Predict the structure of Mitochondrial hydrolase YKR070W-like isoform X3.
Amino acid sequence: MMRLLLQILRNNSSLKSELNGGTKASALPKLFSRWLHAPTQPPSFGIAFDIDGVLLRGETSTGGSPQALRRLYYHSANSCSISALKVPYVFLTNGGGVPESERAKELSKQLGVDILPLQVIQGHTPFRELVKRYEDDLIVAVGKGEPGRVMSEYGFKNVLSIDDYASCFPNIDPLAQYKKWTKMQPTDREMALRTDPCSQRVQAVFIVLCDILRTGGLPGQEIAHQPPLFFANDDIAYQALFPAERLGMGAFRIALESIFNRIHTNNMEYTSYGKPNPFVFKNAENVLLQVLQSAYNNIQSSGEMQPFKRLYMIGDNPSVDINGAKQAGHPWVSILTRTGVFKGIGNHADYPADLVVNSVEEAVDYILRKEHTS
């Protein structure tokens, strides 16, 4: 029987690489089962999940999300890993604050499936594309979590968090005495900065303070044209564990812009990433193709990849998730859940979705039935 399995598997190109890589004999029945149940062609659809308010409320799963995600893997598989993935999916969130690899580990534990860093697209993930432009320049990163560490892992060589940067300027913050900043160690400062930040002009600001913006990147000096300012998203509100919505980065942007425009002759200039920017959805489509390639290793080259016929965006925020999918157009289909920001009975008046459901589990059930995938 084992010889028969070996012969069948060796004749199947999609699993030949695994055998050549030293697959143990004990794993052959599992490989055979996956080959037996796999479709002859990869699926022509994929799914993008928002996280907060759709899959999680705080750190707690909601809407039957663990069960919904497990349905995207082959039932015959012993574990929900990329090799057993039946339907390609990604997490498309405006959140962030930690590296994608760390968020993937957190989500894997919270949702009970093995998630690759590739599958996590956060609000600040597109900042990777700015590395070539600002790789050696002084960058100040502001936001929840550890934005400085995130930017450093992206490849920015001269980056500081706003707290570390502000600590270099005596008396810049009137509330400094009430804060407990962690001072950078001399070795860390030497690695992070090539020159003294007090004399080095900030070249790009990732959500920061009026003093840097109005002085052209050199606090305490003359007023000058502001450095480029980038926001990871423009969410006014989002749904976390607390019953009421929380104000997001979009609210901070409005406050910062209002103050800056009041004290500066020129209006604040900025670039916002994240949903509902159509660029984010196009990038998600490319990532879904990469996930598909990883899951279905019988696809030998990117030249054989066929465009998706349908991509489903499952979100809870009409102005962000649904609006973004609508702006992106074909092949995106929008599905609105009632487990987060949106809690209405019917559809949303300003940003109506293609489908409104009570939970992400109901959304996945609809998708699999529509795509005739068991």
User: Anything to note?
Assistant: The chain has 14 helices and 15 strands. The first strand starts at residue 45 and ends at 49. The longest helix spans residues 278-295. The CA atoms of residues 243 and 339 lie 11 Å apart.
